[in-house]
Amino acid sequence: MNICFVGFGNIAQAIIEGLFKSGMTTENIACIERNQQKIELLKEKNLRMIQLENLASENFDLILLAVKPKDALRTEKDIFDSAPESILITVVAGIALNKYSRPGSVIRSMPNTACAFGKGITGLYADDQKSHGFKNAIKLFSRTGHVLALENEGEMHRFTSIIGSGQAFLFQVLKVYLLELEKISFNDGNNLNDVFNHFVSSLGDSFAEEPDFENLINRIKSPGGTTQAGLESLENSELDKIFREAFEAAKNRSIEISNEQ
Length: 261
Known about the structure:
alpha/beta, Rossmann fold, ProC C-terminal domain-like fold, eight-stranded mixed beta sheet, 8 strands, NADP, amino-acid biosynthesis
């Protein structure tokens, strides 16, 4: 499969890293980018750079649109003007298919940056999910992790808030953990980042063994103990409400982006 990335921002870089880890080589990937700093990154990764006007002659299986939302619709038109037979996957948040000039040739996707480690979660939606292009999109993102085909396009807004943005919310919480851990003095030579990495990775190991959060919590807490006191504080602070409001804010912004186009 030969693919071209139009734009080389954070999510494009994460997808490419995951594709490399899956065995895809630089021979199968090309990029279009105008930012000089990002061009230097492309050179470091030995990725081939092409010009937009040369798209048609390259015969790519898929083209990934990975530009900023404000540039997406203009760039999409430029792509189809240059290569009208293209199948385009957009990783741009918030913009509905009917906003594009050729919605029948566009597939919406929402991957997250975990694609870089082969643990990505990507939501896909297209009007025709039986098309060859959609099947190719599934094959592509399956190389970087899990793929979920959404039943309707409206679900993309919530998927974006939970999966696309949700990692950052958890990183924000873990940042608080790390700052608290830094207050403890270690005198045995342990590396703080290694300690914290084990702490974080153990959460995934625990869930893999017991996918029930109540059971996991009950394994740690004891009546009247320190964990119980902390959990009661979190409950009084309405932590679940705080997170739901964050998801709702991200979802609403996704809708706003769509309406702004």
